[in-house]
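User: My advisor asked me to double-check a structure prediction for Alpha/beta fold hydrolase before group meeting. I don't want to rely on an old file, so could you generate it fresh from this sequence?
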Amino acid sequence: MPRNAPLIAAALTGAGATSLAGGAALLAARQLNGPRRPDLPYTFTPFELGVDSEAVDFTAADGATIRGWWLDAPGAERSEHVVIASHGFRGDKSQMLGIGTGLHRAGASVLLFDFRGNGASDDGRQSLGHYEQQDLRAAIAFARTRRPDARIDLLGFSMGAAVSILVAAEDPTVSRVVADSSFADMHGVVAAAAASLRVPGAFAHLVDLATRRRYGYGFSQVRPIEAISRIEPRPLLMFHGTEDSVIPVEHAHRLARAAGTSARLVLTEGADHCGSYFADRTGYIDQVARFLLADEG
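Assistant: Sure, here is a fresh prediction for Alpha/beta fold hydrolase from the sequence you gave:
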């Protein structure tokens, strides 16, 4: 789970502070969409938390190999739930170990995976929530091969939350969704990052144009606000910190208004980006487990 996620703002720092020219926009677009991996090639695994896991891989629609960990629930032959967890921008599956192992201990089979260009997965074409939807769809297909009769639930943080909303809106086989710190629209979150650096709002439009030309998609194609109503009547639980410095809390309010009556928004007072988990780890895991593992009625 992301411990801190100032990366969208950081992606714009050098470019936005230097110039509003096309070159600066291209640099910012590359920071958002180009390959970049952490310096250290190793990380924590389920081993450190005493949970058995299986290294797995599957292929996204465009050919990118996605790698993850499969955590089989105790008595897995009887398990009725699979939770697929999606990390945030420039994160990796190890950041989902806290909530992932917590849900595993609560009785779910859990799939943690790296989005393309992160962790152990192939590079592929990267973005801020556009191409990554292919990875989550492939994860769902993989989970179906392991548990054909299980209920599939999605859990995501930050960009992973936005991707979970977008994919669930188009896939009626997804039963429940937890979305923590999602943005409502890509343009809005990039503009907010620019504003935090005192860069004029027009800069986001320049980055959008550069992204279209260089990376083949536009900000208008990543708008959870337009998709979220299609999750209804399936249950949707959202979390957001009231002091989120990366994705302003107004994104959560907009999503909640658009989501319909089957959605619930939990605000964590004083929490920064993805801070609800860290404000009360045990309470958070218990709340999510009760929501995702509840019987359908």
